[in-house]
Amino acid sequence: GTASAPAAVATPAGISGTEAARAAPPGSAAPQTKPASSVPAPVRVEILASDTVWISAAADGQPRFQVTLQPQQSRLVTAQSAVRLRVGDAGALTLTLNGERQPPLGPKGQVRTVLLTPQGMQVLAPPPRPAPGEGESTAPAEGETGPGKPPAVEPPEQPKPPAF
Question: What pTM value is reported for the model?
């Protein structure tokens, strides 16, 4: 007699069994049954720099590289479950996930961390510290024009790297 163990279904964290079943194409077997070398990586991220930008990349939780890309340089990162990128200038690069071009990560000059999985791209929330205004909005923030209040002068968030 064989002991019948309860069927354990491996699902990504935070996704219920029914959602995972819906996300998988019908008739697809669990990818773990094939050796990883013969299967294309489920997460394939191409990074194309449009400006000089530093990038730190991790795949499946393991650090892969830290690099400064020059304009028109590109890098490829692959992973089985997730690629995490930290970029020094959100507006200086284009990401392609599994052949699909992703929306911009954010405005130029902003540091961003993004998580890319087979389900798509997720920009992780920046730290709660409010960024000083870049002077982009013309409307004054509430209370800034109050009488007797000196104008708020904040130092820039980070020095720009020297131009080479």
Answer: 0.55
CB atoms within 10 A of CB 44: 17
Rounded Cα distance between 127 and 84, Å, is 16
Give Cα separations from 110 to 86, 88, 126 (angstroms).
11, 7, 10
Contact 83, 77 (CB under 8 A): yes
* Tens-place pLDDT, residues 47-81: 999 999 999 999 999 999 999 999 999 999 999 99
Give the integer Cα–Cα distance in Å for 46 and 77.
6
Q: How far apart are CA 133 and CA 79, in angstroms?
A: 37
Query: With b meaning 16 or more CB within 10 Å and e meaning fewer, what string describes 120-138?
Result: ebeeeeeeeeeeeeeeeee
